[in-house]
Amino acid sequence: MRLLQTLRTSMSALTAERLRLDLIAGNLANLNTTRTPAGEPYRRLVPVFSPRPAGGVEVTGVVADPAEFPVRHDPGHPDADADGFVRMPNVDLVAEMVDLMAATRAYEANATVAQATRTLAQRTLEIGRS
Fold first, then answer.
1. Alpha-carbon gap, residue 85 to 77, rounded angstroms
2. Angstrom distance (rounded) from CA 62 to CA 71
3. What is the CA radius of gyration of the chain?
4. How many domains does the chain have?
5. Which domain holds residue 43?
6. pLDDT in tens, 71-110
7. Disulfide check for 110: which of 2, 13, 64, 89 has CB 3.0–4.6 Å away?
8. Number of H-type helices and E-type strands within the chain
């Protein structure tokens, strides 16, 4: 049944976008985390998606962004080096907000498709009963 496949595709996208939203929230929450338990600034996390052979998408992993840490001169900061520079997380507020809007729109679009598919399936069953 194609309706079921459409619903599976939308649900896989909803799951993927939910993870993406969770990672963005974590990135924003750690925007100023200059020292993690590993001893370095927080690294931005991004999801890795791949297509499913039967349709839809799956999350194949979460990776740390390898981008360099920006530095800021703040001699009074507890994590400042001898020259007064602090390595900051590689999280860009503007980029995260753009990703947040894109992920939100993608989630909404897939939720709409899932709801429309459900409604169509219900109407199809009603016609079959008549």
1. 9
2. 25
3. 21
4. 1
5. 2-129
6. 999 999 999 999 999 999 999 999 999 999 999 999 999 9
7. 13
8. 2, 4
